[in-house]
Amino acid sequence: MKRIAILTSGGDAPGMNAAVRAVARKAIFEGLEVYGVNYGFAGLVAGDIRRLDVADVGDIIQRGGTFLYSARYPEFATEEGQLKGIEQLKKFGIDGLVVIGGDGSYHGAMALTRHGFPAIGIPGTIDNDIPGTDYTIGFDTATNTVLESIDRIRDTATSHVRTFVIEVMGRNAGDIALWAGVAGGADDIIIPEHDFDMAEVAQRVKEGRDRGKKHCLIILAEGVKGGNEFAEELAEYGDFHTRVSILGHVVRGGSPTARDRVLASKFGAKAVELLLEGKGGLCVGMRNEEVVASDIIDTLENGKHQPDLSLYKLNKEISF
Questions:
Q1: Which positions make up the binding site?
Q2: Among candidates 134, 44, 127, which has minimal Cα distance to 81?
Q3: pLDDT, tens digit, 9 for 90 and up, residues 284-320
């Protein structure tokens, strides 16, 4: 192993740059040459690959987004696209690849593995929906961004005695809504992984109003339904002076938290160590606060991420 490459793919997540920095500097420390692939798998197939040195990854650990850029590239799901990517890697003399991203990125790394090219996956997505790890890079930052918004919205909700439905990102996972909802004292949290009854939601709002509560905050994961649709259905049970706030892509941006920077640094260094050991076809993760490596094919085909539903139960017991 003399040369390795790094790419970021799919939706950006705070901490991706910290992971790229860790991979590059750990590899250089170990005497390897490092190359960065611009625009994910699209850039890989196009040969948009450049040499990285120590200075190239300086002053990026605190930056959100990804300085290698990202792009959606459905064509990499085809064998033709995959073989073109491997051809470019061989053209540059690259012996191993580190892929930082979410579910789609992992499937790209898995495809390379099946073709015999060593690839290591690092979980970088705000959604926290990747099996094989308790936490993904970007999740902590995104949750704190949502929490800050919840705190601000509570102020105006109280001033006008309103109910707010706050729709948050997370694709088909409810982790961001769940963690930010508990931390923000939400009256109700609606996630894809747990059924809800709109009549019960309305009853909780009414009971709060009857006790003199001046605000009501409902955190809605986007994987359930849209915020406006949810508010329209809630209105069938009464006039709760409801407003909708859709946080959207603001949740994906911003400087990563200390936890995400450390997590990214640990994952990046581990990925290089695995490649140096001659190992590919693995994904890095965090389980019980320990950095672990799992077979990427087995992880994707048999693993399933589950949110901590004890938090859902806890919120029902302490938020009223």
A1: 11, 21-25, 72-73, 102-105, 125-127, 154, 162, 169-171, 185-187, 211, 213-215, 222, 243, 249-252
A2: 44
A3: 999 999 999 999 999 998 988 889 999 999 999 998 8
Beta bridge partners of 5: 35, 97
> Binding site for ADP: what residues are annotated?
21-25, 154, 185-187, 211, 213-215
Cα-Cα-Cα-Cα dihedral sign, residues 256, 286, 265, 10: negative
Catalytic residue among 48, 127, 188, 260: 127
| Residue closest to 6 by CA, chosen among 128, 14, 28, 77 | 28
pLDDT at 170 over 90: yes
Mean pLDDT of 178-193: 97
pLDDT cut 90: percent of the chain above it? 95
Nearest to 226, CA basis, from 197, 185, 190, 253: 190
Q: Give the bridge partners for 258, in sequence order.
A: none
- Using a 10 angstrom Cβ sphere, with 0-12 exposed, 13-18 middle and 19 or more buried, the burial of residue 114 is middle
Confidence of residue 136 (pLDDT cuts 50, 70, 90): very high
Domain with CATH 3.40.50.450 in the chain: 3-138+256-302
Residue type for position 34? V
Cβ contact 247:142 at 8 Å: no
Binding site residue list for Mg(2+): 103
Choose which CATH entry (1.10.357.10, 3.40.50.450, 3.40.190.10, 1.10.357.140) describes domain 3-138+256-302: 3.40.50.450
For the domain covering 142-252, report its CATH number.
3.40.50.460
Ranges in the chain annotated CATH 3.40.50.460: 142-252
Assigned token pair, 102: 């979410």
Residue 72 pLDDT more than 90? no
Active site residue 298: no
